[in-house]
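Input/output pair, single chain:
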Amino acid sequence: MPTSRIGLLLFDDVEVLDACGPFEVFCVATRVAQRDRPEQPKPFEVVTLSVEATTTVRARGGLTLVADRLLAEAPAVDVALVPGGVTARIEAAPTVLAWIRGAATSAQVVASVCTGAFPLALAGLLDGRTATTHWEDQAELQARFPAVTVVNNVRYLDHGPVASSAGVSAGIDLALHLVARLADDQLAEATARQMDYPWTREP
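Output:
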């Protein structure tokens, strides 16, 4: 199976676990796969992409993160992942919406964690679909985007080309699901075990 490239968006005031939870999942999955299946290509490559003017971003709570590349230099990706946090600025950024729309035409899946659903909705990817976000933001998502059916009490939803998760830690469940989808169930289960994480298989 070829390596899947994950494009992970980073921006000022990104929620730390929204971004770093899925990052950890794909990195651990790759490490586990290379340990257990050394003859096979690595399953995932994560490329972090900064929306800011530099590769350095300041996450919520003050944690400094350094992205691999600027968004303008983004390579083609198989998975475009938009985490949440304070998303007002990236919702108003044409470059971000253009990247999301471009990924929708070429990637296998465009996924959101938490309030990352708002940029996906603005880009039109959630119209006519069910989607979810953090429980505090579900009413706002529904009010702002009536073409989207917002679902509560789920960890994640996967419609094939578009996926969304509930808040913060739910992004880990979605990422493990994507490991199972893009690689296989055995690797996803081994990754969750390696992380000592009680994976919610059923969304």
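Residues 2 and 41 are 7 Å apart (CA to CA). DSSP finds seven helices and eleven strands in the chain.
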